[in-house]
Amino acid sequence: MNPLEERFEILIDGLADRGYGIVDHFLSPEETAALARILHEKRRQGEFKPAGIGNQQVTVQTGIRGDSILWLAEEYAAPEERAFLSSIRHFIDYLNRTCYLNLRDAEFHYAHYPAGTFYQRHLDRFRTDSRRRLSVICYLNDDWQPADGGQLLLYLPQENGTEQALEVLPVGGRLVCFESARLEHEVLPAGRDRISLTGWLRTA
Ligand code: OGA
Ligand code: MN
């Protein structure tokens, strides 16, 4: 098993046992820094747009989510972006082979939450797009501390009918994944800019 597949195994074990997978150092510090640099460069060039609500991306409501996003286009991807998408492609193939999932492709966007912004509790799968099977978030932040806030809260249903909120710090290089149709989650306000590559693995 190569190092990438070892990380896939950690994610898959988590998905099977707890409904979410989390692994650190999915990206090396160098890869994380390179993608963060690309993100900030594209932000400076005005390529980011406020994220919308719903699958038509029509309504912008900063009271629900305050991030700005930029979709990744494979044809125009920089080498570092290609490398990231290639490891996601491997993850899809690995999931299909070992978990008999019928995943076909992925869609990813950069996300930038300016200080003070958040994303209220929600479910990722849109009512009109049932193709999103797994949500994947890979953080690009440098030296994130608990005092910086911006936690991802995962609402985990418990066997006794209650739920437990799990806090995940958006530490650079860390990757989190969960079933898009099942886990409600939210992003708490951060005290500084919060950045990530966020996407969905989709079925046919
Ligand atoms: C999303 C989302 C979580 C995060 O973009 O749908 O829930 O931690 N992101 O950035
Ligand atoms: Mn979400």
Task: Give a structural overview.
The protein is an alpha+beta fold and 204 residues long. The protein has a single domain, classed as Jelly Rolls, CATH 2.60.120. Helices cover 26% and strands 31% of the residues. The chain is built from three helices and eleven strands; from the N terminus they run αβαββαββββββββ. The chain has helices at residues 3-18, 29-44, 79-99, and strands spanning 20-23, 49-50, 68-71, 103-113, 119-122, 132-139, 152-157, 163-168, 175-179, 184-187, 194-203. It has a seven-stranded antiparallel β-sheet. The chain has a four-stranded antiparallel β-sheet with strand order 5-10-7-8, with no helix packed on it. The radius of gyration is 16 Å and the shape is globular. The mean pLDDT is 94. It binds N-oxalylglycine and manganese (II) ion. N-oxalylglycine binds next to strand 10 and strand 11.
Give me a quick take on this structure.
The protein has 204 residues and is of the alpha+beta class. It has helices at 3-18, 29-44, 79-99; strands spanning 20-23, 49-50, 68-71, 103-113, 119-122, 132-139, 152-157, 163-168, 175-179, 184-187, 194-203.
Structural class by secondary-structure content: alpha+beta
Q: Report the uncertain regions.
A: none
Per the principal axes of the C-alpha atoms, what is the gross shape? globular
The overall strand count is: 11
